[in-house]
């Protein structure tokens, strides 16, 4: 009888210990959830839609970008444009890097306020080519736009990650395995970045023609012929961007 009483007491103590442990775990879970919620609130507050004052600064910064380029963009010039003291800008943006992130989002939003997955009757290659053309158009709308967007963080430049999400959603719905879909979207996007960065940094067609007429590539006959054919295509209004993109994504012949 004493042994049975001891067993019951031990079981009762064990059950009580388990209940205390569960209670502590539940308290910890609730505490972590509250912490995460506070973090989410801070992120949303910090990276939400820009205020009226922030948007005014972003618009002015984009104007300066078009005028002077990214390398010459400075908070001092921006403050002068807005008739503000430079330190006042820090009330709206933590630093220049954050401002550029918001500029990147503004550039992307100019083209991607709406982004929908591909239609059931649409080939995924056609859908992806169209999205990449829109991404290219957005970055070309601003001087050094590709450098601004390519270097942006995922917050607040959330449109870029939305592009990846909808891209993978579209490709997986076409039967492509998730990681392969990610690789396709990532590779195509990186091509667009590189293409526009090079395009915006490249010499003008007139400068290229002048360099070729000066015999710059005479010792490289295959490169010379290829460049000449590309220039002829450009002069005829043909854009090789889509041809290259279709080659990269394996567009069916």
The helix/strand series, from N terminus to C terminus, equals HHHHHHHHHHHH
Q: What share of the residues does DSSP label as strand, in percent? A: under 5%
Helix- and strand-based class?
Answer: mainly alpha
What's the mean pLDDT score? 84
Q: Tell me the Rg in angstroms.
A: 28 Å
General description of the model:
With 253 residues, this protein is an all-alpha fold. Among the domains are: 47 residues; 47 residues, Homeodomain-like (Arc Repressor Mutant, subunit A), CATH 1.10.10.60; 51 residues, no CATH class. The protein is built from 12 helices and no strands. Helix 2 packs across helix 5 and helix 6 crosses helix 12.
Topology, please?
Blueprint: H1 2-47, H2 52-68, H3 75-81, H4 86-89, H5 96-109, H6 124-140, H7 145-150, H8 158-173, H9 178-201, H10 205-213, H11 221-235, H12 241-249
What's this model, at a glance?
The protein has 253 residues and is mainly α. Helix content is 73%, strand content 0%.
Which descriptors apply to this entry?
Arc Repressor Mutant, subunit A, mainly alpha, 253 residues, extended
């Amino acid at each position: 009888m004493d042994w049975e009483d001891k067993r019951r007491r031990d079981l009762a103590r064990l059950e009580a210990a388990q209940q205390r442990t569960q209670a502590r775990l539940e308290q910890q879970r609730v505490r972590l959830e509250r912490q995460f919620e506070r973090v989410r609130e801070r992120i949303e507050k910090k990276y939400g839609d820009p205020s009226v004052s922030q948007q005014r600064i972003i618009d002015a910064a984009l104007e300066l970008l078009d005028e002077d380029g990214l390398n010459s963009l400075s908070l001092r010039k921006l403050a002068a444009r807005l008739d503000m003291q430079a330190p006042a800008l820090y009330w709206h943006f933590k630093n220049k890097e954050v401002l550029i992130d918001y500029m990147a989002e503004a550039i992307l939003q100019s083209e991607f306020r709406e982004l929908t997955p591909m239609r059931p009757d649409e080939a995924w290659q056609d859908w992806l080519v169209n999205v990449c053309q829109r991404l290219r158009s957005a970055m070309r709308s601003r001087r050094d736009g590709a450098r601004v967007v390519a270097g942006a963080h995922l917050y607040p430049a959330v449109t870029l990650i939305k592009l990846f999400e909808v891209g993978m959603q579209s490709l997986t719905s076409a039967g492509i395995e998730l990681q392969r879909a990610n690789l396709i979207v990532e590779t195509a996007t990186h091509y667009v970045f590189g293409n526009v960065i090079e395009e915006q940094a490249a010499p003008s067609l007139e400068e290229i023609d002048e360099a070729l007429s000066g015999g710059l590539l005479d010792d490289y006959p295959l490169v010379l012929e290829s460049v000449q054919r590309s220039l002829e295509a450009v002069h005829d209004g043909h854009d090789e961007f889509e041809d290259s993109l279709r080659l990269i994504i394996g567009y069916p012949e």
